[in-house]
Amino acid sequence: MSFRTFLKSLENRGDLIKVNERISPKFEIAYVMSRLADGPALIFESVEGFKNEVAGNVVSTRRRVYAALNVSNSALYKTMIEAYRDPVYPKIVDDGPVMENVREPNLLEIPALTHYERDAGPYITAAVVAARSLDGRIENVSIHRLLVLDKNHLAIRLVPRHLHKLWETAKNEGYDLDVGIAIGVHPAVMLAAASSPPFGVSEFGIANKLLKGNLKLLKCKSVEAYVPYDAELVLEGKILRDKEVPEGPLVDMTGTYDVQRMQPVIEVTRIMHRNNYIYQALLPGGPEHRLLMGLPREVAIYESVSKVVPTVKAVNLSEGGCGWLHAVISIEKQTDGDAKNAILAAFAAHGSLKHVIVVDSDIDVYEPKSVEWALATRFQADEDLIIIRNVRGSTLDPSADQQSGLTTKLGVDATMPLSKPKGGFEKAQIPPTERAEKIIESLKQSS
Ligand code: MN
C-alpha cells in the first residue's frame, strides 16, 4: 500500500514504462510527461545530474485512479463519500522504511523538475504537507507547490485555506509552524490531501479509510509533525513566521501562468528517505494535476446534486474545462425543473465551478461529441440557460476578475423536455446481427 508497491502493481499489469535514456529534469522530463499523459506511468531511470529515479504520470488517467483505490468507476464516489463521513485515524508507529536514511538537508540533490518556459525555477509539485495546531489537536494535510530556493529553503504557496490558517495562528502566537512534507506516497493519500473536509478533520483519516486501515504514520524527529511511514522521501521543517519571498510564476490547473506573489518560506531541518528513493514528479496543469484536484470536487457535486435529483448517473469535471471549471452531469430526470435544480446544487458544491451542462443519462459525460450532440438536439437557449452575474468563482480563470474573484456563471439544461414525445430525441439504432459483427471483424483484420 505504498507508492512503491503501487508502481510495482502497475508494472506487473504492463501499465508502467521505464525510460533508461539520459534525460534532463529541466523541461525534458516535463515535456515527455505532457506528451505521454494518456499512456502508461513512467519511470525515468537516468536523470542528468541526479542519482535518484523520477516517476511521472503515476495517476494521469482515471483508470489508474480507480486501480489505486481498487474500485470501479461507479463505486468511486460512494467509496470516497464513505471515507469523508467516517474517517479512521491511522496507527502511529516508531519506525518505517522512510527512516532507512536520515540526514542533513540538501534540497539541491532532489531531482525537482523545471516544468514550463517561464516557471520561476525547479518546483516540488507532489508534496503532501502535514501540520498540527500548537496544542496538537488539529491536523491538516494538503498538497502545496514548493519552489526550491537553496540547500535548505523552500517557498510555499499558501492559499488562504486550512494550512494557511494553522500557520497564521502559530505566527500570531509567535511561533513557526512545524511541517512534515512527504513525497512519493500512495495515490489514496494524494487524493485525500487534495480534498477539503471541514477544518479539524485530518485528511490522513480519510486516506487511511480509502486504504482500508493500512496507512501508518510516524512522527518526524526534528519537528512536531506526522508523515506516512513508507513515503519515499520526507522533508522536516518549519514554515517561518517572519519571512516571505517572491513565489511564482508557475503554471496552474488552467495551463496558464499563475502570477508571482510574496509567500512564506520553509526552513528544512532534516531529510529522511528510503534507500534509492523514487522522486515523484507531477506536471502542473497536466491531466494528473486536474484529476487529483477535480475528483474530490466531483464527489462533492455528486453528493449535492443527489439531494435535489433522485438519480445522478455521472459527473465529469472535464479535461477541457481544466478539471476544475466545467462540469457535465448526467441525471435521470423526473420533472422538467430537475436539471435547473441540479445546476444550482452543482454551483453550491464547488465554488470555483463556472459552466455546468446537465444531460440525460443516455449521454456519455466523458465523451465531448456526445455532450455536444445533446446541446445540438435538446437545448433551447431562451429557456434552458441560467446566467448568474458577479458571483464568486476561481481566481485561476484569466477571464474572471482575478483580484475580486468575481465571475459570471452559466448553467445549461441539455436534457430532453418531458412535454414533448421522447421518441423524437432518442438516438436512432441499427439492429446488429451476429453475421454483421463477424463481417466487421474480418474487415478490420484484413485492413
Ligand atoms: Mn483540511
SSE layout:
Layout: H1 3-12, E1 16-19, H2 28-35, E2 41-44, E3 53-56, H3 62-69, H4 73-85, E4 91-93, E5 101-103, E6 123-132, E7 139-150, E8 153-156, H5 162-172, E9 177-183, H6 187-193, H7 203-210, E10 216-219, E11 226-228, E12 233-247, E13 250-251, E14 257-258, E15 261-273, E16 278-280, H8 287-306, E17 311-317, E18 326-332, H9 338-349, E19 355-360, H10 368-378, H11 381-384, E20 385-392, E21 406-413, H12 434-446
Parallel strand pairs: 1-2, 3-16, 4-10, 18-19, 19-21
Antiparallel strand pairs: 2-3, 5-15, 6-7, 6-9, 7-8, 8-15, 9-12, 10-11, 12-15, 13-14, 17-18, 20-21
Helix pairs in contact: 4-7, 4-8, 6-7, 8-9
Question: Can you describe what's shown?
Answer:
This protein is an alpha+beta fold and 447 residues long. The chain has a domain at 288-423: UbiD C-terminal domain-like. The chain is 28% helix and 29% strand. It has 12 helices and 21 strands. It has a 6-stranded antiparallel barrel with strand order 6-7-8-15-12-9. A 5-stranded mixed sheet has the order 17-18-19-21-20, with helices on both faces. α6 (187-193) runs antiparallel to α7 and α8 (287-306) crosses α9 (338-349). It starts with a helix and ends with a helix. Manganese (II) ion (MN) is lined by residues 140, 142, 162, 196-197, 203. Manganese (II) ion binds at residues 140, 142, 162, 196-197, 203.
